[in-house]
Amino acid sequence: MNFTSLLNTTIFCALMLWIGFFAVVGYKLTTGEINSRGILKDREGNFSPGRLQLLAVTLMGSGHYLILLFSNLNQQVYKFPEISRELLLLIGGSHICYLGGKSAPQLMRTILRHLKP
């Protein structure tokens, strides 16, 4: 068995593993075995635009990376693609905005509590 056929077999097996993983998770999400209720709600049960933004940016960023990965495989470049600076800034900025939105009310309460005589 030569190296090329071994590499192609390994890639095929890895793809089948990922397809199986996504199929099982997708099935469990649709049947309710994985609880996704409230994923876009805050502690009070209200819709959270911050969580929607965080989820959307994370899914778009990971989708972009998967496209780059499959593009490399089609060109027979067998290495992980470089993560662009823009993608890191987009996902990092999204997470900073989400965490800043979560921490701002607590920070304000703490500041106001210390300012009261």
Q: Oligomeric state of the chains? A: single chain
Share of residues in helices? over 70%
Q: Supply the number of structural domains.
A: 2
Shape: elongated
The total count of strands amounts to 0
Distance linking N and C termini? 80 Å
- Counting helices, strands and paired strands, the structural category is mainly alpha
The number of helical elements comes to: 3
- Main sheet attributes: strand count, strand direction, barrel closure: none
Task: Give, in order, the helices and strands.
Answer: HHH
Average pLDDT figure: 88
As residue ranges, the low-confidence spans are: none
Query: Over the alpha carbons, how many angstroms does the gyration radius reach?
Result: 21 Å
Strand content: under 5%
Write a structural description:
The chain is an all-alpha fold and 117 residues long. It folds into 2 domains: 1-36; 38-117, no CATH class. It is built from 3 helices and no strands. The protein has helices at residues 3-31, 49-74, 85-115. The chain is elongated, with a radius of gyration of 21 Å. 1% of the residues are buried.
